[in-house]
Every structure is written in C-alpha cells, then in structure tokens.
Design brief:
This protein is of the alpha+beta class. Helix content is 37%, strand content 18%. The chain has a seven-stranded mixed sheet, sandwiched between helices. Strand 4, helix 8 and strand 5 form a beta-alpha-beta unit. Helix 3 crosses helix 5, helix 4 packs across helix 5 and helix 6 crosses helix 7. The protein starts with 5 loop residues before the first helix and ends with a strand. 24% of the residues are buried. The mean pLDDT is 89.
Length: 236
C-alpha cells in the first residue's frame, strides 16, 4: 500500500468536498479491481496443496497428532484444516476397500473409455485376489463414482520397459477442477510406494496437467495403433 498526497492528484473542489467528511487525516481508497488473496503469488497454491495433502493423509488413517508434528502446526490448526476440507472432500477408496462395487466400477470405466467391461473386470479381479499389487482407485460422491484410475503393467505403448502405468484417469465433467484427479494420482502413487513399487509411469497427450501433481515428462512413446507419439511422465 502506498500513500500519495491528495493535493498532487485530486482537484481542489473534490478535496474541499472530502474535507467535509474527514479533515487532516489519512484515508484509504481501495483498488477498483479487487484481487483475491494470493492471486499474484504462489502462496495460495502452496497452502491449498498442503491442506489437500493433510486431508488425504488423515482419510488414510494418519492421526491429528502425527500430522501436527509432521507439518509443524498445532493440533487445532490440523483439525480446522480437516474440518474445512470435509465440506469439499469426497470419499477416496482403493477398490480393495469396497470390492462389492467392482461390477459397477468396471461398467463405469468401460463407458468412459470404450473398452469392454470384461477387460476391466479381469484386471480388477487379479488385484482383488492378490495376484498383483496394481490397484484401482475411485472417488465417490455418496455411492456415485465420479472419478477413477487404475494401474496396469503397460498402457498399450511400445516402451514396455517403463512400468507400471497409471491408466484410465477420468473425472466426471461436473466434478472437474476440484482436484479429484490429483487426489487419486497421489493416492495411487503412495499406495504403490508403500508396496515397494516406484517409479510409476503414465501415457498422455496432456501438457501441463500432470506437472501440477509432481509428475515429470520423461520421453515420447508410440501408442498401439497411433500415428503420432504421446508423452510419458514419471513419478518417483
């Protein structure tokens, strides 16, 4: 905020009118275009991402006390962040936590990507039977699936040496721009890391999206049946 003498910028007549209300004191004139807090810095983004991470880790079982120690915050601050986040947070689950919805999950993915339901069911059943650690992750609004992704060996590209791959990342249009995909990606990466699987890769044509969530561009790869190469990202 800067201070400027009214005599330098305002006409005498206007100054005399203002003096009828305040005389010999400083006044603040707000900007015509009011900017939101943090709009010109990365401060708001930093705290938004930190609070989102705290909410996710609490949902996964980390206690308020442990979160307070790790993030150097008071327990009351952590509770406030969690309480505020709950108003905007949906349920994030690994399919293993709710195996009874595998049919509806496979159907949902099939409709989004045009791949036979049976293909998804086969992967999900292998995961649920413990034949693979490559899981499937969902975002639920009540009982409704609004976002999801899976992990498979190879997402139909020629770099077979880069595995496992995140696949079928999708969020319902009405639920986009709420960080759902980012939450699911983080959940999958952390789950795999706990099982000793890292790094993780994904194939995409998007530029600038996955970088927000800590993914780094690695190389180009040719998708099966595709004329143009796509981008491969890595998260370690």
């Amino acid at each position: 905020m800067s201070y400027v003498s009214a005599e330098k910028i305002l006409p005498k007549e206007l100054i005399e009118q203002i003096q009828q209300y305040v005389n010999g004191k400083s006044i603040y004139i707000p900007s015509k275009e009011k900017k939101k807090w943090g709009s010109e810095t990365k401060t708001k983004q930093f705290y938004t991402e930190r609070n989102r991470e705290i909410c996710i880790r609490h949902l996964k079982g980390l206690s308020v006390k442990a979160l307070a120690v790790e993030y150097a915050l008071s327990e009351k601050s952590i509770e406030r962040i969690i309480r505020t986040g709950k108003m905007k947070t949906y349920s994030y689950i690994a399919l293993a936590e709710k195996p009874d919805i595998k049919e509806s999950a496979a159907e949902w993915f099939s409709k989004k990507w045009g791949i036979p339901k049976e293909a998804y069911l086969e992967c999900m059943e292998s995961y649920l039977k413990g034949e693979t650690v490559y899981g499937w992750y969902l975002c639920l609004d009540g009982e409704k699936i609004v976002g999801g992704l899976g992990v498979i060996e190879n997402d139909f590209h020629d770099r077979k040496d880069l595995f496992p791959n995140i696949c079928a990342v999708y969020t319902e249009e009405a639920y986009r721009k709420q960080g759902i995909a980012g939450n699911l990606l983080q959940m999958a990466v952390e789950d795999l890391r706990e099982k000793g699987v890292s790094p993780v890769y994904l194939l995409t044509d998007h530029v600038g999206f996955y970088e927000r969530y800590g993914w780094e561009f690695l190389c180009m790869a040719n998708g099966d049946g595709e004329d143009e190469p796509s981008r491969i990202y890595m998260h370690s």
